[in-house]
Amino acid sequence: MSNAVSTLNGASFEGYVRVEEQGLVGMITLRGDLTSKALAKAVKSATGAAMPGQGEIASGDKGRVGWMSPDELLLIVDHAAANDMVAALTKALAGEHALAVNVSDARTVFRIIGAAAREVVAKVSPADVNALSPGQLRRTRIAQIPAAFHMIDEETAELVCFRSVGKYAFDLLKDAALPGGEVYL
Amino acid sequence: MSTRLASGGRLIDRSKVKNFTFNGKKMQGYEGDTLAAALLGTGQTLVGRSFKYHRPRGILASGAEEPNALVNMGTGGRFEPNQRVTTTELFDGLTATSQNHWPSLEFDVGVVNNYVSRFLPAGFYYKTFMFPRAGWKHVFEPIVRQSAGLGQVPTEGDVDRYEHFYHHTDVLIVGGGVAGLAAAMAAGQSGKSVLLMEQTAHWGGRAPVDGGTIDGKNCGTWVDETVAALEAMDNVTLRIRTMGSGVYDHGYALGYERVADHTPGDGRPRHRLWRIRAQQIVTATGAIERTLSFAGNDIPGVMLASAVRDYVVNWGVSVGDRTVVVTNNDDAYRTALALKGAGLDVPVILDARPEATGPLAEAARAAGIRVEAGKAIAKVHGGKKVTGVSICAQVGEGAALEEIKCDAVAMSGGWSPVVHLWSHCGGKLIWDEAHAHFRPDPDRAPTSHDGKGFVITAGAASGAMSLADVLTDGDAAGKSAVTAVGGEASKAVAPKSDAEETQPMAAVWIMPQGAGPKKRMKMWLDFQNDVKVSDVQLAAREGYESVEHTKRYTTLGMATDQGKLSNINGLAVLSDALNQEIPTTGTTTFRPPYTPISLGAIAGEARAEIFQPIRRTPMHEWHEEQGAYMEPVGHWRRPYTYPRKGESHAEAVNREVLNTRERLGLLDASTLGKLIVKGADAGKFLDMMYTNMMSNLAVGKCRYGLMCSENGFLSDDGVVARIDEDTWLCHTTSGGADRIHGHMEEWLQCEWWDWNVYVANVTEQLAQVAVVGPNARKLLEKLGGMDVSKETLPFMQWKDGTLGGFEARVYRISFSGELSYEIAVPASQGRAFWDKLHEAGEEFGAMAYGTEALHIMRAEKGFIMIGDETDGTVIPQDLGLNWAISKKKEDFIGKRAHTRTHMADPERWKLVGLETLDGSVLPDGAYAQGDGENANGQKVVIGRVTSTYYSPTLKKGIAMGLVLHGPDRMGEVISFPTVDGTNTVIKARICDPVFYDKDGEKQNV
Amino acid sequence: MLILECPYCGVMADETDLHGDGEAHLKRFGPGSSDDDFEGYLFMRKNPKGVHFERWRHASGCGKFFHAARNTMTLEVYGTYLAQTLEPPKAIIDAVKAKHPEWEGYK
Questions:
Q1: Range A19-30 average pLDDT
Q2: Which one is the CATH code of A12-23+106-176: 1.10.150.20, 3.30.1360.120, 3.40.350.10, 3.40.718.10?
Q3: Three-class SS of residue B88?
Q4: Mean pLDDT of chain B
């Protein structure tokens, strides 16, 4: 719908890295048996992506799929496509124990862009950010809230948190990215 | 008098003058100075007063172990007390003032304590302030408050910023002296990741001051080359101004980086706390020189011999023109030689050992210095500064043999390894007889998650006391760390230094050996807290045998330096007094941080806006724009009320209640928890979760449900809707969603893992608005898109559809007793939907209402509120909710507990309504008083108020409460004594808790 | 600050990512159970100085509950394992016994 807005309406901040909210992003929580062929097929048909392994995030032509737990995936897709995709997944998986639910609006998505992207995330997260290669997804916390992030490339981190704390996360990342805070010069 | 020498100082740049003030006096130093060096360079030897006796205090050391020279630093938003001048880098515009004196540093009234010091012995506080009891409040505390304490408390908020930084490394090396550097080289060459931290601004530690050669180069050159080599390694991170503050479980360590202490206001964070996870930690933390205990060892001008050497070599500062050196070991000879080399006078070296032989003693003699073996200081002369010493034989009782004029004394009592970081997480120590110190026992290292040791010491921190040994040990530590993290240690040979011949030190703790009481009362152990040899001996005589007790009784080692200098000497004196070996006495416990770290660094970014996460609904900004008064509900902020201009909160709340009851109210209910529960076994599962039956709820219908803990206590409530054959949507309380989600997952994962149920938390996916009041349906009909008539959407049913173009799920549920719809739309459209409701609802009198109006309306209807009527000890039966407890179900969480004797006790307080006889509002939480007293002589209580409000609808106070036999006492009047000091009693009549529209006619239209 | 490996997602998780949930392997007693059994289930907890079995949740990670066998004294971790079990797996028991031959078992 045209009146839909993301948590921060695409706000951005130029620090020693750039922090930007990604606007509306479609997201689907899919719970089910990740070893099931029907599920893999449904995911493939929805996103074009293959089933990610433990701790991974896979890409396809219509979206990306992150491994969230042994029985949970996160599908990252077009915001406008999410509802239909949930319906399609639900239909395709009607014969097995599975749950697909649209959580697009329950999340806020950021990108942290710059040579020091990892460094800025490392100021707020106990996870070993340097050990995270593109294609790996880490669920952990940033400061006082849960978050998940992955490296899109060596200089771009994508971070997902809950919508209600989107402003907190943005303020937190802005603080971490303030010029003068460079850890390595 | 101390002064700046015409030349010398390896760390300073004389071309860069730095201006600063001390007690308002303008002074100058050079770039590279510490504040201590700059103060001494200008002749300022008196820098503070001691804690208890207000004795004059000068700089004693040159590093983190300094006990005396603490100052107030900065002004305004950068004011901070108790800053150590020896670890403060000088910068232009630095302002410092001395502490703990009144009216001035030079003339301090508190010094009167010094003259009555014989009446202020160890345990003085414990003994004196016991009786009379009233004395504490009126006499002792005011005096102690006036005279005790060190720095002042800042009066302004801190203007600086702070941050944390998480770092993962294979090997962490703490200490950038030659041992740490050697360890870093050895570890770095393996390719494993290495973080090397040094607390000062310079690499190399003591070695460049002490001299000697490494691999044929002088120490300074070797340090520079090694640092350059390490900087070239990608796997090695080097960090100066970063102190290893503490070592914790499983390889966790804290590094305290003082990023901008020396460049205040440059926009950088002031401190950065490194939260490090290391597989192996090498502590190359060096050693600290010990003081010697002789009468008058606290007079300004008496310093550690190594510090005297540091000031000359590092900063070109002499602490005196004539310095007497007194020692029990060889190292202090280096100080004498350094002073002599700088053209200063060393009238005598007093060596407590019976003989002074070996290369260093010979070198001193060759330099023309008088060396006296078997001699000691009988007494230091002087008040605010040293004027001379009397010398005596170490073995005697201290008869003065000779008085020697001098203006400084350099003392050395031997060296103690810095074992703090080793010990923080349980590393054990052994007593090294030869060096008279405790050193780490490598066989008993602190252990990590794999049961293996994760801390290795290097260099002087291991007890290595010569340059050659320090290098070998540092190299070995680096290689051991690499092997321990699964790497291949480099084959490179350790850096080498020529072995020097030294003579054994002698364990001399007090001088002279037979000093009498008068002398012992002037021998300081803890300089900051004024603990003397006589105090420790007194404690021993009074039965304090445990070192931990003695510490607390005498306050030895309890000052801000945490006994870095006093610890071993105190132990030695205590052991002697108890007539036992030092290892039998043991040490006190080493706890982090190594030196005090700022509260700002600990807080990191968590202050102001990001002090804690504030959860915001999609309509949050609207509430703020309206000037809503917000209240915390968990981490959410919800509008309590929306006061208009000139309105009090109470007036605003009353307006909101009446408008909702008479016209139309809109509530942002987005904070309500929403959990999707789906699966073939979902109905069975929900029957276990809720006290009532959920499996038989028809698709399209809603049911109010209660959840209990396994203890039987009411834990949450909410409306459950059946979405389809195997899907339910469970509403939880605001702020309860994560907790209840976790509760459900725990049962599913840990108890019924074979049940086919999935739960997903969709709380934040949906914005939810309660449209409440007689005009509610009119508004929805105006929006259009779906049939919301009584027939199509009766009470306690739900429907999906569109409203005004918004995809919506509409629930006919009510928490107010009015005609009410709760409408969920995607959160991204929440604000637009909310705006639309206001716009379209204007003609129907739509008005937002807040949580207080919500609470009043639910209380008028007698609806319970989790957290008001419940407090974790209340069961549903207490609240008259038996109708919501299934009798058909064999089991549910809490069912077994409800049959425990105490739960089934008819004496449990039960929920009733309460109305005051005079219409006033009962105080929240007030207790009802019954007849008689209990076994403790207290008045019997028979109930308490759980919710109480002024009802604008009924125009009187209404309340709910839990009362003994309450439901059986309808109409009875009970008494609630007030506790506001008026001694009044409020009378209230027990009534039905439903005050308004008992038959539900308003909500069922 | 412990680190425990989450057996579900393989992450070596920092204690701040985890939530401790008390003793593992409690047997639930419901309606019909004796007062003693129910009391034991609700309230009686081990508090050993040494080997202990605990339930943890990878709270800000995958959200899964798991079990950890660890030493409350030395903080050594003998292993972590899935929550879907009534008793510690043999591999965990063996790991404990290898370190503590005198250990009498988890019950």
A1: 98
A2: 3.30.1360.120
A3: coil
A4: 94
